[in-house]
Amino acid sequence: MREEHTGPLLAVEESTEGFNSEIAARITSATGTWHSKGLRTDHPRAWTQHREATVAPFLTNLAPTLHWRVETAGWDLLGFEALDGHHANYAPNSPDLPEVAALLRRLGETPCPDIELRQAEQRLEHYAAHPDDFRHFAGTHLLHTDLNNTNILVNAHAPQGDQARLVDWAWATRGAAWLDAAYWTIWLIAAGHTPASAEHWAAEIPAWRTAPPEGITAFATANANIWSDISNADPDPWTLRLATAANAWHVHRRTG
Hints:
- A hairpin with an 8-residue loop joins strand 1 and strand 2.
- The protein is α+β, with helices and mostly antiparallel strands.
- The model has no long low-confidence stretch (mean pLDDT about 90).
């Protein structure tokens, strides 16, 4: 860590959560506190650091502010505003659910920057049931696409409707406006919602209400295939839980 960005360090608290970083820590110095994450510059996922740094300036009121980036001694390090709060609770009746919905509404109103981003239809096309299904996923909106509850921090002391922030933008994508609500649906089912209850919460996002029903069904099918592949390759409890949730939603969309 280069102290010209932080001042002399007083404390470094390593974080054990997150899948995209080799280093993740809360850093405190005499001048402030930051959340830092990093990868070696030769890491296969080194591109995720660049993606996060590139999209960060466009995420006002959505994500922690990026204060610095350091590339030194073979490492790429990002220093973000350190947020207070807890990981969002997606369980039925959780008070966090309206805050997550408000966050996704704000994201839906955010212009997509003219930067290099992955395309939703390209990410999903190999998992669609029919070759023309992936056309439903194309669009011009900025998407997060990883609605894992640990990627949303909720500060209960902030004003209502503005308590939630999204972290970890490595998989930022350009696509149809309703897709983040759809990604959230799978995580809600995994947290104990019925598919109908999860879709009720998804409908809190305006883009969902105008999405083509056949497009939503195609997305549910594609994600059942994705999570089946992931859980077969890495069958631990959380991947199996998401695979079960994605399949339950797929069945719900097919059978009503």
